[in-house]
């Protein structure tokens, strides 16, 4: 374990000890007084609608051993008893958090896997962490805390870990540049370049540039892992691989359709799992993925690439894939009586992930296939076109019933109808409550229901409603 003390925080963050003990060991950090635990170091962060600095007393009362603040003007006025407590003032708490995380990272000579892409970051993170756990004690990003605050907080949780798996998100240029400078990944994984945040980037090519910022921080001699079936990543590989290989980096490609180092062959897609054959060093192995859908095959191929690169035996890699668990609300399959299935994929949505979800739904056997789809957000001028593409995909995949929720998703309904979907099977709703009422009407036995939208739409409310409805026996008897 590598300890950080208050004096290290003062040194690394140009801080000032306002009160307390500079020899205090800082074992864990928190920015949320609602979940703070005894002994945590509290970070008072200013948000758009709140000032975390004002909560320092609550943090202490809940057991924080020290507070890092960037505004201490009210300490004297509060006349709060600081005996036995420690306060450090910094210029900016978020920047101090990032500096601390960078310092913490520098104390560990371990594999650090950075993962980015428009789709599949969280599930790829989960499956890679499961594979690496066969050899290492792994720390991974919780949920999708992949931004300038969440990722540094993850790094600060390093203790006796021997590997780190980090998700890196971006919605504008410079985001990943900041994160990779902190994380210094030894392996960089790129899942897919799609359309998420295209309103800010203006083009998929610019999204690629934003994602490729991760390579700015990669350690010398590190490994780059690419989904070679993605058009822009494949193009990047053809244009840039020679330069990186000549400079001592390793590049691993994976895919299904394009020639790659690791290729999934003889794929069998079942309702709730998949399997395929992979050639490793001239020998074939069967890989079982415990979640259905072609996109999870790609995620498992990324995990194979990383696991083998780190010297994990292929049989242990395959075992790690078989055992992995998804982050909640990512293709979370809930089974009810009367052969009713709910696919809770409400964590987020983009064109690519919508297509993957609908394709998965379409391949489920003898069920009435119901898609409850909400708005995809942050698409700017591309909003109508991308939602209409989803509507076309709904029709092409022969979805039986479509429920849309929100303003943007009306374009999904309009396009599905214009393509030929029966209007009687299309339900346009403004709110989650309206959509829940529709569920009362359309969910019958032998139904498979996909529920998906951008996180801000909170479609998990519909999932909760359906769970209560079906568990009461109203639909499944």
Q: If strands are numbered along the chain, what order do they take across the biggest sheet?
A: 9-10-8-11-12-13-14
Per CATH, the superfamily of the largest domain is Mur-like, catalytic domain
Uncertain segments of ≥5 residues (pLDDT<50)?
473-477
Domain count: the total is: 3
Distance between the termini: 55 Å
- Indicate the proportion of strand residues: 15-25%
Q: What's the CATH class of the largest domain, please?
A: Alpha Beta
Largest β sheet strand count, sense and barrel closure: 7 strands, parallel
Report on this model:
It is a single chain. The chain has 477 residues and is α/β, with parallel strands linked by helices. It has 3 domains: 4-91, Udp-n-acetylmuramoylalanyl-d-glutamate--2,6- Diaminopimelate Ligase, Chain: A, domain 1; 108-323, 3-Layer(aba) Sandwich (UDP-N-acetylmuramoyl-L-alanine:D-glutamate ligase); 332-471, Protein-Tyrosine Phosphatase, Chain A (Alpha-Beta Complex). The chain is 36% helix and 22% strand. It has helices at residues 6-12, 56-61, 75-78, 93-106, 121-132, 150-155, 175-183, 198-201, 204-212, 231-246, 294-309, 314-323, 351-362, 383-396, 410-419, 432-442, 460-471; strands spanning 4-5, 16-19, 25-26, 29-30, 41-43, 66-69, 86-89, 112-116, 138-140, 163-167, 187-190, 223-227, 250-255, 262-263, 265-269, 274-280, 283-289, 332-336, 340-345, 368-374, 401-405, 426-429, 447-452. The strands form 5 sheets. It has a 7-stranded parallel sheet, sandwiched between helices. α2 links the parallel β5 and β6 (66-69). α13 runs parallel beside α14 (383-396) and α16 (432-442) runs parallel beside α17. The longest helix has 16 residues, at 231-246. Mean pLDDT is 93; it is low at 473-477.
